[in-house]
Specification:
2 copies of one chain form a homodimer. The radius of gyration of chain A is 20 Å and the shape is globular. Chain A is an alpha/beta fold. The first copy, chain A, has 2 domains: 149 residues, Quinone Oxidoreductase, Chain A, domain 1; 151 residues, NAD(P)-binding Rossmann-like Domain (Rossmann fold). The interface between A and B is medium-sized, with 34 and 34 residues. Strand 13 of chain A pairs antiparallel with strand 13 of chain B, so a sheet runs across the interface. Chains A, B: This is NADP-dependent oxidoreductase. Chains A, B: Keywords: Oxidoreductase. Chains A, B: It comes from Streptomyces triticirhizae.
């Protein structure tokens, strides 16, 4: 083992649970010792951290689908890094891995918790934190297994310029949808949807009510709504859904920083007469789809049929800033924090 | 053909579309000519009419899952009657049939639209308008195909003293549920649930908030909610649902007479973290299950494993009164109108 191993590194701690929108006062960047890997462990120098909307939920205390972040402990999240020391079979210094010990410069972890990055797919490494990582798998599972998109479906995706929504809309088309409509905030993002991602129409939720725009974009109604947003997007989608329509509830970013629960859509009763199915899912329950997803998605990428964007913030000290910017829609595609600088 | 065939009969017409709760002013009982059956038709003397919550939706104009009642035309609905004239093969005078030309004393209809009542099941005829008819099939399909009740599930059924809810809760148990909880209004009905229908616990929604009572009745949460009501019942059920819980949306009686759409439940976001599935359905889409349902349900009835109740109003002139009483919860079990008197 080389003698240049790091003995300390910086890591983000949650120091106070936020109410409503988090602020700088909720977080602290601290330096902590780096432990040497024990038997079966690896030490990873993180190159990129992933910041994602679901992390807001982990900042709250109490019952949720995922354990809350502990106070005064490193926050967790997906990261891509390089093995700098290994006491695990099959992992060598220099290997690239993804893992879930993010929000820090160095992580010592059981090799069993790391996923080697395939080197034969001819895609940029950062794709494994995005379109070939958790967010891409989320899009794939949501369209294929939850919404069960079919030949000829008209599909509406909210948050379509984001890390999940962009791939979700394109995958819908690749899986047979006849028309794909996306929503995003502002003309730059909506242009991206129609001009680069191949959406048939885009709804700018900042420009006019979603319902009005969606009715124009889908005069025959929609068959699938892939929800990243909730709120008025969900209400508009319910109005537009055709009989036997399906809603894959992937995210509800409009509510994550609310201090009071908002009432649900006034038109939820349409679920009955139109025989709608509204289903929530978490990608963590669908890891068995990962292999198929990787193979299929890499193929789409190589064929130029699937495009994605990244927004990269430089420096671990900007990680919470990147997280908050992403929550406010300041990203295009996957929001990443680079530790390469 | 006997010479005593009726030449006129009474029938209920919708004469004005109701706003909110219907009143006598919305309906008229009129006498109309009875036409002789043509080739392939039968003439039926109705013995029992079925009044059901979904009929309220048909009184409205405009887009719905089912065509609205026409003004100044006979309203439609399930009925049980005796063939008094037949020009159709396989139908003889005296045969009992069910059909959908209700709200009238006599109906001339294509034999293809009539369903012969099986005589070998050893159950009262009226069962074919209830537990062995549309409402029973609704319960069966909802539990088996939509909620997909499994061994060990804890199941909550609203409107459980009604024509659908009573069978639904008992079928859940017969299909493997470990604990069944029902809601109803008032002590007479809740006692019926626990003492006669075999529910493990009952919630009296008139006595205290549903959520409080449900939390006590299902301290470990519920896995299935069979919804006949909507509103605060749905909100309470969402709070109680365990991960991978399912909601079969069968009816939303709390909203049928509302003049303004009510906001949806404040806790709809639980759909995501708990990976819930909320699915609406209509029995009309599931007629292919009828044969299996009849065989299975008749078996349960014969074995004394499934119980049901009926509330019978006497006289066609009381049909709208029976409908409104049913909408207000004035029935126990299936609400029927007898024309036998």
């Amino acid at each position: 083992m080389p003698t240049t191993l790091p003995t300390a590194g910086r890591e983000w701690h949650l120091v106070a649970r936020p109410t409503g929108w988090p602020t700088d006062a909720n977080f602290a960047l601290r330096t902590a010792p780096v432990s040497e890997p024990g038997a079966g462990e690896i030490l990873v120098r993180n190159r990129y951290l992933s910041v994602d909307p679901y992390m807001r939920g982990r900042m709250n205390a109490g019952r949720s689908y995922i354990a809350p972040f502990e106070l005064d402990e490193p926050m967790l999240g997906d990261a891509l890094g390089e093995v700098v020391a290994s006491r695990a079979e099959g992992f060598a210094v220099g290997d690239l891995v993804t893992h879930h010990q993010g929000w820090r410069e160095f992580a010592t972890l059981p090799a069993a918790d790391a996923v080697p990055v395939p080197r034969d797919l001819d895609v940029p490494d950062t794709a494994f934190l995005g379109v070939l990582g958790m967010t891409g798998l989320t899009a794939y599972v949501g369209m294929k297994d939850i919404a069960r998109v079919r030949e000829g479906d008209v599909v509406f995706v909210s948050g379509a310029a984001g890390a999940v929504g962009g791939p979700a809309g394109q995958m819908a088309r690749l899986l047979g949808a006849s028309r794909v409509i996306g929503s995003a905030g502002g003309p730059e993002k909506t242009r991206l949807l129609t001009e680069e991602f191949g959406f048939d129409a885009a709804v700018d939720y900042k420009a006019a009510p979603v319902g009005e725009q969606l009715a124009k974009a889908a005069p025959e109604g929609i068959d699938v709504y892939f929800d990243n947003v909730g709120g008025d997007h969900l209400e508009a989608a319910l109005d537009a859904l055709n009989v036997f329509g399906r809603v894959a509830v992937c995210g509800l970013i409009s509510s994550y920083n609310a201090t009071e629960p908002a009432p649900g859509p006034r038109n939820l009763g349409l679920v009955l007469g139109r025989r709608l199915r509204v289903e929530g899912y978490l990608v963590t329950d669908h890891q068995e789809r990962r292999e198929e997803f990787l193979r299929q998605t890499a193929e789409w990428l190589r064929a130029g049929q699937l495009r994605y964007r990244e927004t990269v913030c430089e420096g671990i000290e900007r990680a919470t800033e990147a997280f908050l910017a992403m929550m406010r829609g300041g990203n295009v595609g996957k929001m990443l924090v680079s530790l390469e600088g």
